[in-house]
Specification:
Layout: H1 3-9, H2 19-33, H3 37-42, E1 46-49, E2 52-55, H4 59-76
Antiparallel strand pairs: 1-2
């Protein structure tokens, strides 16, 4: 199943998506199909069937998107490293 077929099956119109929507849905597609960046890099970049030509994004674009998604995931983590000043308590509660 291709990404466009996956989108259409879920009610999306591939030509009407923004770049951000396309990237987000691409992640969901990869999670559903199990297709990884390494698998996509090993496949052909351009395919022509019955006069219809489809071109995959370049490897540099795929790597940049993967790095961007990893950075977004890391930034969304609620706690990375937290610094806090601690004051010892006393027996009297001060």
């Amino acid at each position: 199943m291709t990404f466009d077929e996956w989108l259409t099956a879920r009610g999306f119109v591939p030509g009407e998506l923004t770049d951000l929507q396309r990237l987000t849905l691409q992640e969901a597609f990869e999670a559903d199909t199990g297709e990884t960046l390494a698998e996509r890099m090993n496949g052909p970049q351009t395919v022509t069937i019955d006069g219809v030509s489809v071109t995959e994004r370049s490897v540099a674009d795929l790597i940049a998107a993967e790095q961007h998604n990893a950075a977004q995931t890391a930034a969304a983590a609620p706690y990375g490293m937290r610094l806090a000043r601690m004051r010892p308590g006393s027996a009297r509660g001060e």
